[in-house]
Amino acid sequence: MVAHETIPNTGELNIEDYITAINFLAESKSDFIFNNSKPELAAIVMAAIINYSDDEIRIYDNCLNGDISNQHSSLLESIMHSLESGKKIKLALQKEIECKSEICKTLTRYQEEFPKGLDIRIANESFRKNIKDVLGKDIYFIVGDNDAYRMETENVPNIRKGICSFNGPDITKKLIKAFDKEFKNCLKYIPATSTVSA
Predict the structure, then answer these.
(1) Within 13 Å of residue 28, how many CA atoms lie on the same side as its CB?
(2) pTM of the model
(3) How many Å apart are CA 130 and CA 73, to the nearest integer?
(4) Sequence-ordered list of residues with C-beta below 8 angstroms from that of 88, at least 6 positions apart, any chain
(5) What pLDDT was estimated at residue 158?
(6) In this predicted structure, what is the pLDDT of residue 13?
(7) Contact 164/34 with Cβ under 8 angstroms?
(8) How far apart are CA 73 and CA 58, in angstroms?
(9) 3-state DSSP call for residue 110?
(10) String of DSSP letters for 36-73
(11) What domains, with CATH codes, occur in the chain?
């Protein structure tokens, strides 16, 4: 395992080459650990985690404001294809915002179309406390199955610095433990524009 090495960012590499490199790591289930920053690059890595997962994806993020998903279309596409193929996506949001962004509107629609596949909830105090207890601080992350992850090293809007690997079960065990303990106790996310009943 190579710890905290970097895949060149787009200043050194064009975006198509970056996508190719990420997909290679995902497909080969590499245990290479790499840094990832900038919302566009975060979207690409998250899309690959979703695409290359077989069963279940867990995501903890601040809100559905589109700061990552608006940067690269692959993220929303990967969510749609995953739900269509029967994968489950659990999404915990740190806070609720008015549903104005494209990702919020799209995920609200997907939640209605795939009620057994997409479960969006608002993180309660116990959920956030458990994240801090297990991980040391309240940080955002995505986990694909039991192996792949992207974990932010600090929650700073528009920077989105994180570390990632497509084969890091030691880390994913902690992330899954932090996520699963309180997720079911969080309230379901039902924006005012939704037709879903409580």
Answers:
(1) 9
(2) 0.88
(3) 32
(4) 55, 56, 57, 116, 117, 118, 119
(5) 67
(6) 60
(7) yes
(8) 20
(9) helix
(10) E-SHHHHHHHHHHHHHT-SSEEEEEES-SS-TTGGG-T
(11) 5-188 (3.30.870.10)
- 10 token code pair: 């787009």
Beta strands in the chain (DSSP E): 5-6, 34-36, 56-61, 88-93, 118-122, 141-144, 148-152, 162-165, 187-188
| CA-based torsion, 39, 42, 43, 44: positive or negative | positive
Could you tell me if 87 and 152 are in contact, meaning their C-beta atoms sit under 8 angstroms apart? no
34 contacts 9 by C-beta, under 8 angstroms: no
C-beta separation of 167 from 29 below 8 A:
yes
Give per-10-residue mean pLDDT for the chain (198 aa): 46 82 97 92 95 97 81 88 96 85 87 94 95 92 97 77 96 96 93 51
Structure tokens at 158: 């528009």
Among candidates 50, 149, 65, which has minimal Cα distance to 100?
65
**Which of 49, 14, 47 lies closest to 165, judged by CA?**
49
